[in-house]
Amino acid sequence: MVKDPIIDKQQVLSLLEQVADPEVPVLSVIDLGIVRDVKLNNDEVEIIITPTYSGCPAMDVIGMEIKMLLLEHGFKKITVSNVLSPAWTTDWMSESGKEKLKAYGIAPPNPTRPVCDIGLFTEAEAVQCPHCQSYITKLVSQFGSTACKALYKCNDCLEPFDYFKCH
Amino acid sequence: MKPSTDSLVLYTLHLADNALMLGQRNAEWTGHGPVLEQDIAISNIALDLIGQARNFYQYAAKQINLSTDQSINPAVTEDSLAYLRNEHDFMNCLLVELPKGDWAVTVLRQFFFSTYQFYFYGQLINSKDSTLSAVAEKSLKEVTYHLRWSAEWVVRLGDGTMESQQRISNALNDLWPYTAELTTLADYEEALLKERIAVDLNSIQPLWRNKIDEILATATLPTPKNLETRTGGKQGKHTNQLAIILKEMQYLQRTHPGAIW
């Protein structure tokens, strides 16, 4: 069933909250901050997104899901465009997104950003364990199960956990 | 597909081929890494590099299609550029096509290449070409992780056990002759320098060398001397290793043209 057409940009943005990141399904594309702009022209719409990482395999799936959702809502011509600049940063992640990540068991990016520099064997600032809230944690590897995550271990509850790293 | 003679196309392909070949070589470790965390690390680096390659190939394809008539020539895509070109059309440096070797070869090559990419992308951001500049801005963040990770491994192996030091010393002597090409200008780069599109590699060379010297010293490894340099890849003249990896990489598309997932 084709629903009533949407004409307001804000309404399109709230619709896009239904599109989840396939690799971190608690986050919507809005939470992630990858939707950069929406351009509307009657039943035509262009969604401008930016990748988190160059090789992120979720981007193709996300583009497809955005198209399917907007088709359902009466848009005839839907374009999903990729822009690379300005480059995505975890600063664009919403506060509610960070809360959802933590509840899901992934440590959200720290607010003051220890972005990777080229200094060797340096420990970034403390990352809080999403399970027991301890700050006594240890970096296991800068590279985790997906491009956007690092692997940590809690020295208090001994659980390993993912950290959505600052970028 | 007729090889292009346009400098910007060749430059874009050179950058794409560099990233693709090293991404493929690193991906050979996936499922075979020495420990799980490092298997994941090298696979992540491979993925970043292949992502960078895609961005460059898409841009190269766009340029080629704009300059050709698609009623005569079929449109070029990122996939046809990766899977249907012959080895002499590849413009990557020789360093990235060499076999993955042991872990010492892999991490040392990554360190040489990431150091180059770190300073290179840092300057490509200022390119007059807005697409190249955007890809550089995006990629630089990723390369920072690669550089730190690979430099730590060079130190760990160089200042490690007798065996690890022996292996990385061997890797150093084997790979060193191929490093000069990273900062040697090809003719298509010279042509783009005046328009301030290409990065002047002469300005990258001392930065690259300082970083290498610093990390090798920390790793207690002597910088090799008097080794003959090997170049040619940026002009399409490759070692026989490229043909071998392309044969494997391109097998499916050559045998079943147009096959998709």
Outline the secondary-structure elements:
The complex is a heterodimer of chains A (167) and B (261).
Chain A: H1 9-15, H2 29-32, E1 35-41, E2 44-49, H3 58-72, E3 77-82, H4 95-104, E4 106-107, E5 137-141, E6 149-154, E7 160-164
Parallel strand pairs in A: 2-3, 4-7
Antiparallel strand pairs in A: 1-2, 5-6, 6-7
Chain B: H1 7-27, H2 36-67, H3 78-83, H4 94-97, H5 103-124, H6 130-158, H7 162-175, H8 187-193, H9 201-218, H10 240-255
Which tags fit this structure?
heterodimer, A: 167 residues, alpha/beta, GMP Synthetase, Chain A, domain 3, 2 domains, four-stranded mixed sheet, three-stranded mixed sheet, 4 helices, 7 strands, B: 261 residues, mainly alpha, Ferritin, 10 helices
Report on this model:
- The complex is a heterodimer of chains A (167) and B (261).
- Chain A is α/β, with parallel strands linked by helices and 167 residues long.
- Chain A has 2 domains: 74 residues, GMP Synthetase, Chain A, domain 3, CATH 3.30.300.130; 74 residues, no CATH class.
- In chain A, strands 4-7-6-5 form a 4-stranded mixed β-sheet.
- Chain A is elongated and about 55 Å long.
- The model of chain A has no long low-confidence stretch (mean pLDDT 89).
- With 261 residues, chain B is mainly α.
- The longest helix of chain B has 32 residues.
- The interface between A and B is medium-sized, with 28 and 35 residues.
